[in-house]
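Subject: sequence -> C-alpha coordinates, single chain

Hey, anyone have a minute? Need the predicted structure for the following. Not urgent.
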Amino acid sequence: MPGARSFESLKGDLTRLYPNLSSQLQAIATYALENPQEMALDTVARLAKGAGVQPSALVRFAQALGYGGFSDLQRVFRTRLVERSTQSPGLRNYRERIEAFRAAHAKSGPTAVLDEFIGDGIASLEALHEHVSGADLQAAVKVLAAAQSIYVLGHRRSFPVAYYLSYALTQLELRAPLLDAVGGMLKEPARLIGPKDALLVVSFKNYTPDVIEVAQACKARKVPVVAITDNALSPLARTATVCFQVEEKTSRPFRMLVAPMCLAQALVVAVGEHLDG
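Reply:
Had a minute. Here:
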Protein backbone atom coordinates (compact mmCIF):
# COMPACT_ATOMS: atom_id res chain seq x y z
CA MET A 1 0.00 0.00 0.00
CA PRO A 2 1.58 3.30 -1.06
CA GLY A 3 1.58 6.13 1.45
CA ALA A 4 -1.24 8.68 1.31
CA ARG A 5 -0.51 11.89 -0.60
CA SER A 6 -2.98 14.15 1.20
CA PHE A 7 -3.38 14.87 4.89
CA GLU A 8 -7.05 13.86 4.87
CA SER A 9 -6.17 10.50 3.29
CA LEU A 10 -3.40 10.05 5.84
CA LYS A 11 -5.87 10.59 8.69
CA GLY A 12 -8.12 7.96 7.15
CA ASP A 13 -5.23 5.49 6.95
CA LEU A 14 -4.29 6.14 10.57
CA THR A 15 -7.88 5.61 11.72
CA ARG A 16 -7.98 2.27 9.94
CA LEU A 17 -4.50 1.02 10.89
CA TYR A 18 -4.22 2.40 14.42
CA PRO A 19 -5.67 -0.61 16.32
CA ASN A 20 -3.05 -2.92 14.77
CA LEU A 21 -0.03 -0.69 15.38
CA SER A 22 2.40 -1.35 18.21
CA SER A 23 2.10 0.83 21.30
CA GLN A 24 5.17 2.80 20.22
CA LEU A 25 3.78 3.50 16.75
CA GLN A 26 0.40 4.39 18.26
CA ALA A 27 2.18 6.99 20.41
CA ILE A 28 3.71 8.50 17.27
CA ALA A 29 0.35 8.49 15.47
CA THR A 30 -1.29 10.34 18.36
CA TYR A 31 1.55 12.86 18.55
CA ALA A 32 1.48 13.41 14.78
CA LEU A 33 -2.22 14.25 14.64
CA GLU A 34 -2.05 16.45 17.72
CA ASN A 35 1.03 18.32 16.44
CA PRO A 36 0.78 18.55 12.63
CA GLN A 37 2.75 21.79 12.43
CA GLU A 38 5.66 20.31 14.38
CA MET A 39 5.54 17.22 12.13
CA ALA A 40 5.97 19.51 9.14
CA LEU A 41 8.84 21.58 10.49
CA ASP A 42 10.79 19.78 13.23
CA THR A 43 13.74 17.42 12.88
CA VAL A 44 13.42 13.69 13.46
CA ALA A 45 15.31 14.03 16.75
CA ARG A 46 12.96 16.69 18.12
CA LEU A 47 9.86 14.83 16.96
CA ALA A 48 11.08 11.62 18.55
CA LYS A 49 11.65 13.45 21.83
CA GLY A 50 8.18 14.97 21.67
CA ALA A 51 6.55 11.59 21.01
CA GLY A 52 8.68 9.85 23.64
CA VAL A 53 10.25 7.35 21.21
CA GLN A 54 13.57 6.63 19.52
CA PRO A 55 14.24 8.37 16.16
CA SER A 56 14.32 5.00 14.40
CA ALA A 57 10.68 4.46 15.42
CA LEU A 58 9.65 7.42 13.25
CA VAL A 59 11.15 5.68 10.23
CA ARG A 60 9.28 2.46 11.08
CA PHE A 61 6.11 4.48 11.51
CA ALA A 62 6.46 5.99 8.03
CA GLN A 63 7.17 2.58 6.50
CA ALA A 64 4.13 1.06 8.26
CA LEU A 65 2.04 3.66 6.43
CA GLY A 66 3.53 2.77 3.06
CA TYR A 67 6.20 5.48 2.72
CA GLY A 68 9.77 4.83 1.65
CA GLY A 69 11.11 6.90 4.53
CA PHE A 70 10.22 9.57 7.04
CA SER A 71 10.88 12.46 4.64
CA ASP A 72 8.07 11.18 2.39
CA LEU A 73 5.65 11.22 5.32
CA GLN A 74 6.84 14.65 6.44
CA ARG A 75 6.15 16.00 2.95
CA VAL A 76 2.43 15.34 3.50
CA PHE A 77 2.46 17.47 6.64
CA ARG A 78 4.40 20.21 4.86
CA THR A 79 1.90 20.23 1.99
CA ARG A 80 -0.91 20.62 4.53
CA LEU A 81 0.89 23.57 6.11
CA VAL A 82 1.34 25.29 2.76
CA GLU A 83 -2.32 24.74 1.85
CA ARG A 84 -3.49 26.16 5.19
CA SER A 85 -1.30 29.23 4.77
CA THR A 86 -2.64 29.77 1.24
CA GLN A 87 -6.26 29.41 2.30
CA SER A 88 -5.87 31.58 5.43
CA PRO A 89 -2.99 34.04 4.84
CA GLY A 90 -3.51 35.73 8.21
CA LEU A 91 -3.57 32.51 10.21
CA ARG A 92 0.12 32.35 11.02
CA ASN A 93 0.18 35.93 12.31
CA TYR A 94 -2.97 35.19 14.27
CA ARG A 95 -1.33 32.23 15.99
CA GLU A 96 1.73 34.33 16.72
CA ARG A 97 -0.53 36.90 18.38
CA ILE A 98 -2.14 34.19 20.51
CA GLU A 99 1.27 32.92 21.63
CA ALA A 100 2.36 36.46 22.44
CA PHE A 101 -0.85 36.95 24.40
CA ARG A 102 -0.17 33.84 26.44
CA ALA A 103 3.44 34.83 27.10
CA ALA A 104 2.39 38.29 28.26
CA HIS A 105 -0.09 36.85 30.74
CA ALA A 106 2.01 33.98 32.11
CA LYS A 107 1.63 35.06 35.73
CA SER A 108 -0.51 34.11 38.71
CA GLY A 109 -3.79 35.55 39.95
CA PRO A 110 -7.48 35.23 39.00
CA THR A 111 -7.28 37.80 36.20
CA ALA A 112 -4.26 36.07 34.69
CA VAL A 113 -6.09 32.74 34.82
CA LEU A 114 -9.06 34.28 33.00
CA ASP A 115 -6.74 35.79 30.40
CA GLU A 116 -5.12 32.40 29.81
CA PHE A 117 -8.48 30.71 29.29
CA ILE A 118 -9.65 33.47 26.96
CA GLY A 119 -6.54 32.96 24.84
CA ASP A 120 -7.06 29.20 24.74
CA GLY A 121 -10.73 29.67 23.88
CA ILE A 122 -9.97 31.95 20.94
CA ALA A 123 -7.36 29.50 19.64
CA SER A 124 -9.85 26.62 19.97
CA LEU A 125 -12.46 28.45 17.93
CA GLU A 126 -9.93 29.25 15.21
CA ALA A 127 -8.96 25.57 15.06
CA LEU A 128 -12.65 24.62 14.85
CA HIS A 129 -13.04 26.86 11.81
CA GLU A 130 -10.12 25.01 10.20
CA HIS A 131 -11.15 21.44 10.92
CA VAL A 132 -14.95 21.34 10.46
CA SER A 133 -16.02 21.00 6.83
CA GLY A 134 -19.25 22.18 5.30
CA ALA A 135 -19.79 18.74 3.79
CA ASP A 136 -19.68 17.09 7.24
CA LEU A 137 -22.08 19.68 8.64
CA GLN A 138 -24.55 19.06 5.83
CA ALA A 139 -24.27 15.29 6.24
CA ALA A 140 -24.83 15.49 10.00
CA VAL A 141 -27.85 17.79 9.60
CA LYS A 142 -29.37 15.37 7.08
CA VAL A 143 -28.92 12.42 9.46
CA LEU A 144 -30.33 14.24 12.50
CA ALA A 145 -33.26 15.83 10.69
CA ALA A 146 -34.36 12.45 9.27
CA ALA A 147 -34.18 10.53 12.56
CA GLN A 148 -37.32 9.48 14.41
CA SER A 149 -35.47 9.98 17.68
CA ILE A 150 -32.02 11.48 18.31
CA TYR A 151 -30.45 9.75 21.28
CA VAL A 152 -27.76 11.96 22.85
CA LEU A 153 -24.83 10.54 24.81
CA GLY A 154 -21.82 12.05 26.56
CA HIS A 155 -20.26 11.43 29.97
CA ARG A 156 -17.67 13.13 32.18
CA ARG A 157 -16.19 16.19 30.46
CA SER A 158 -18.48 15.67 27.47
CA PHE A 159 -21.67 15.70 29.55
CA PRO A 160 -22.31 19.49 29.40
CA VAL A 161 -22.17 19.37 25.59
CA ALA A 162 -24.49 16.35 25.43
CA TYR A 163 -26.92 17.89 27.91
CA TYR A 164 -27.10 21.08 25.85
CA LEU A 165 -27.70 19.12 22.63
CA SER A 166 -30.56 17.17 24.20
CA TYR A 167 -32.12 20.33 25.62
CA ALA A 168 -31.77 22.43 22.46
CA LEU A 169 -32.98 19.73 20.06
CA THR A 170 -36.01 19.22 22.29
CA GLN A 171 -36.73 22.95 21.90
CA LEU A 172 -37.02 22.26 18.16
CA GLU A 173 -39.81 19.79 19.10
CA LEU A 174 -37.60 16.84 18.21
CA ARG A 175 -37.43 13.72 20.34
CA ALA A 176 -33.89 13.88 21.73
CA PRO A 177 -33.59 11.83 24.95
CA LEU A 178 -30.37 12.10 26.92
CA LEU A 179 -28.83 8.72 27.70
CA ASP A 180 -27.34 8.63 31.19
CA ALA A 181 -25.95 6.00 33.51
CA VAL A 182 -28.16 6.63 36.54
CA GLY A 183 -28.50 3.37 38.42
CA GLY A 184 -26.14 1.69 35.95
CA MET A 185 -28.91 1.78 33.34
CA LEU A 186 -27.08 3.05 30.25
CA LYS A 187 -27.00 -0.02 28.03
CA GLU A 188 -30.64 -1.05 28.55
CA PRO A 189 -32.27 2.06 26.99
CA ALA A 190 -29.47 2.18 24.39
CA ARG A 191 -30.66 -1.20 23.08
CA LEU A 192 -33.91 0.51 22.02
CA ILE A 193 -32.10 2.65 19.43
CA GLY A 194 -32.98 1.42 15.94
CA PRO A 195 -31.88 2.11 12.35
CA LYS A 196 -34.54 4.81 11.92
CA ASP A 197 -33.12 6.72 14.91
CA ALA A 198 -29.72 8.38 15.30
CA LEU A 199 -27.07 8.47 18.01
CA LEU A 200 -25.43 11.84 18.67
CA VAL A 201 -22.40 11.06 20.82
CA VAL A 202 -19.69 13.21 22.38
CA SER A 203 -16.45 11.84 23.86
CA PHE A 204 -12.88 13.05 24.28
CA LYS A 205 -9.72 11.54 25.75
CA ASN A 206 -9.79 9.69 28.02
CA TYR A 207 -12.76 8.10 26.28
CA THR A 208 -15.48 6.66 28.50
CA PRO A 209 -15.59 2.89 27.75
CA ASP A 210 -19.38 2.58 28.16
CA VAL A 211 -19.95 5.44 25.71
CA ILE A 212 -17.68 3.85 23.12
CA GLU A 213 -19.38 0.49 23.60
CA VAL A 214 -22.84 1.98 22.99
CA ALA A 215 -21.59 3.71 19.82
CA GLN A 216 -20.07 0.48 18.54
CA ALA A 217 -23.28 -1.43 19.27
CA CYS A 218 -25.31 1.19 17.39
CA LYS A 219 -23.04 0.92 14.37
CA ALA A 220 -23.47 -2.86 14.41
CA ARG A 221 -27.26 -2.36 14.32
CA LYS A 222 -26.87 0.08 11.39
CA VAL A 223 -27.89 3.09 13.49
CA PRO A 224 -26.50 6.35 12.04
CA VAL A 225 -23.91 7.78 14.44
CA VAL A 226 -22.92 11.46 14.53
CA ALA A 227 -19.84 11.91 16.73
CA ILE A 228 -18.05 14.89 18.24
CA THR A 229 -14.60 13.83 19.36
CA ASP A 230 -10.99 15.02 19.31
CA ASN A 231 -9.08 13.39 16.45
CA ALA A 232 -8.99 10.69 13.79
CA LEU A 233 -7.58 8.14 16.25
CA SER A 234 -10.58 8.37 18.57
CA PRO A 235 -12.49 5.08 18.77
CA LEU A 236 -15.57 7.09 17.78
CA ALA A 237 -13.96 7.91 14.43
CA ARG A 238 -14.19 4.22 13.53
CA THR A 239 -17.89 3.97 14.39
CA ALA A 240 -19.31 7.28 13.18
CA THR A 241 -21.35 7.93 10.07
CA VAL A 242 -20.26 11.57 10.43
CA CYS A 243 -17.34 12.46 12.70
CA PHE A 244 -16.39 15.96 13.84
CA GLN A 245 -12.82 16.16 15.09
CA VAL A 246 -12.47 19.10 17.47
CA GLU A 247 -8.71 19.12 17.94
CA GLU A 248 -7.32 21.10 20.85
CA LYS A 249 -3.66 21.54 21.62
CA THR A 250 -3.16 22.53 25.22
CA SER A 251 -0.94 21.42 28.07
CA ARG A 252 -3.47 22.48 30.69
CA PRO A 253 -5.19 19.87 32.87
CA PHE A 254 -8.53 21.61 32.22
CA ARG A 255 -9.53 21.04 28.61
CA MET A 256 -11.61 23.65 26.83
CA LEU A 257 -15.30 23.18 26.00
CA VAL A 258 -15.58 26.39 23.97
CA ALA A 259 -15.18 24.75 20.54
CA PRO A 260 -17.35 21.65 21.19
CA MET A 261 -20.14 23.85 22.57
CA CYS A 262 -19.92 26.20 19.59
CA LEU A 263 -20.15 23.23 17.22
CA ALA A 264 -23.12 21.85 19.19
CA GLN A 265 -24.97 25.17 18.91
CA ALA A 266 -24.22 25.39 15.19
CA LEU A 267 -25.57 21.86 14.65
CA VAL A 268 -28.81 22.63 16.46
CA VAL A 269 -29.43 25.85 14.55
CA ALA A 270 -28.56 24.19 11.24
CA VAL A 271 -31.00 21.34 11.95
CA GLY A 272 -33.68 23.91 12.78
CA GLU A 273 -33.07 25.78 9.54
CA HIS A 274 -33.23 22.52 7.59
CA LEU A 275 -36.58 21.59 9.14
CA ASP A 276 -38.00 25.05 8.44
CA GLY A 277 -36.72 25.12 4.86
